[in-house]
Amino acid sequence: MDDIKRDPFEEYIKQTEPAKRELGYAWYTAIGLQAVDGLETSDYLKKTARENIDGKITISEAGKLIESYYEENADRSEDRTKEADIVSARIATILSENAFTFSVPQYIGIHKRLFEGIFSHAGRVRDYNISKKEWVLDGASVHYGNALELREMLEYDLRTEKEYEYSTDSISSIIPHLAKFVARLWQIHAFGEGNTRTTAVFFILYLRTMGFDVTNDIFAENAWYFRNSLVRANYNDLSKGIRETTKYLELFLRNLLLGETNELKNRYTHIRWKDKKQDIGSSKQDIGPIKQDIDSSKLDIEIPDSVTNKTKQHIQRLFEEFEYERFFGRTEVMNILKITASPASALIKKMLDLGIVYPMKGKGKGKYLFRR
What we know:
Elements: H1 10-13, H2 18-32, H3 43-53, H4 59-72, H5 81-95, H6 104-115, H7 150-163, H8 171-188, H9 195-209, H10 218-221, H11 223-232, H12 247-258, H13 266-269, H14 309-322, H15 330-337, H16 341-354, E1 357-359, E2 368-370
């Protein structure tokens, strides 16, 4: 099978046939959203998606093929790839539909449709309190909704949103409100798992009812940034001068709805990131000498002088993308650096030999994480 590009459906989303273009974006978004939980889809899923986009099979048949694939190949159900594939197919199906109701049952129903057979609590509001260590918060957690009030909180937020009268002056003027709405909805964290993917799907469908096309690659390529932005919109630590902010979400939405090209770097959302505009340049400027743009407070690896400058540049680019909390494999290295399989494997081996990365356990074969 050919190497998977960063945009595996580029040939479809750039063409003029609306049906194929919309299906291409639906699948691309569905696959990209798995990154919010560090998941990666299989080549079989991508192949099946292409067959659907080409009209060889229906989207319903694609979903059935994916689920049958795992029923017949139980040994392939490890490391949550099964979850990523099945949920991707279900997201693509939902995004290809026109039916949507802005309501609590719809929100809960999306969770059930996405995760039925994956999570035992699919479609069930949690009855216990939770906390989650966040990389973007240096291990701290957002204060999520209290288990005793979750349904009431959902109903209140959606009712309040229904009553809000949007300005007709400009799209730019409503973006701050949209950011606050989706941040509040996500903060409730109504389910034990799968909250970000459920919220993203619900939000995309809601934006469509407002007339927004939302058929672009912003969600697909920036899902992890989207989640980090939601975290930052719901976290305060006044003792350290940290306040909740929707500025990162607003940049995301400006790219999504206005076609702007704001840089959506995960490291910018980190609570210890120092906003130095001179460090933020074009995408070409980001790939420079190893000491140029990396936040030294977060990078404590040493690279020998014997390593070529090009290799240093590649390592920097990968670190900027994945940092210390996101694992990656050969496919991600190929996609980020736009290189083929052989150079990607050689680079990973080099980083292993230098002790810069280490293999992850329980995440599947060939997954790595930057070493602190």
